[in-house]
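Long-time lurker. I teach an intro course on protein structure, and each term I like to show students one example going from raw sequence to a predicted 3D structure in token notation. This year I'd like something fresh instead of my usual example. Would anyone be willing to generate the tokens for the chain below so I can use it in lecture? Attribution to the forum is fine with me.
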Amino acid sequence: MVIKDEQGGIVSRIKRYLGPVTNNIAEYQALIAGLQEAQRLGTREVEVSLDSELVVNQVNGLYRVRDAKLKTLEGEVRRRLGHFARWVIRYIPREANREADRLAREAVREKVDSVVAGPEA
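-- Reply from a regular --
Happy to contribute to a lecture. Here you go:
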């Protein structure tokens, strides 16, 4: 997960090893981690770009969440979104999300959790 400021500068990079989970669960967990970090940073508004059409459409209410595990995660996302004055979640193609994909692959390969925040992010 990569968090950027309004000018597009990176303020945080998050890597989290989740173990063996589905792609959809991993996408929800990444979204939750990003929202937690945005909240920690004191952000009032968030614009989220995800390369998971399913998660984007579920959170935006276009698709119903049927899977019980995803329903729990979607509820957590909604609870966290309630902390922001304004939020937008949109789909982007995987090619436009390379930095976040690189961090996810590193977390799996290295089995690490980390949040790098600030200018060195």
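Some talking points for your students: The mean pLDDT is 86. The domain at 2-117 is CATH 3.30.420.10 (Nucleotidyltransferase; domain 5).
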